[in-house]
Design a protein that fits this description.
The protein is α+β, with helices and mostly antiparallel strands. The protein has helices at residues 6-16, 19-28, 35-39, 46-58, 77-106, 110-113, and strands at residues 33-34, 62-67, 70-75.
């Protein structure tokens, strides 16, 4: 099993635990956006959006750059890939567990073999 940076993973899941931040990540999955573009559909102030973006940046999920007066944000694909790999590993583990249970249940029981 792959080793993961636990602190980074914890930060990523914390950042993704908020619906507003997930909405921002969803929007950024289509491409970079300015802070005002991210704030537009959300029911929160521009200041709140900036605070949420800070959480996403601290988790390494989003990168931003400032050009003049416009701050543009983009997803950090590498950080998102680590979260995706962690989830895929959990999914693979549980699929193996279910396969083992299914194989066990498919074995004939003692009363079935005595016939």
């Amino acid at each position: 099993m792959l080793q993961y940076n636990q602190k980074r993973l914890d930060q990523a899941f914390h950042a993704l635990s908020d619906p507003g931040r997930r909405a921002m990540v969803e929007r950024l999955s289509f491409g970079p956006a300015s802070v005002s573009q991210l704030a537009e559909p959300l029911p929160m102030t521009l200041s709140a959006v900036v605070q949420h973006l800070k959480v996403l940046e601290d988790a390494g999920l989003v990168k931003s750059r400032k050009t003049g007066r416009v701050r543009t944000c983009a997803l950090d694909v590498g950080a998102m890939s680590q979260v995706e790999r962690w989830i895929a590993d959990r999914k693979r583990f549980w699929a193996q567990q279910y396969d083992q249970v299914e194989a066990y249940l498919a074995k004939p029981g003692p009363e079935e073999t005595d016939r």
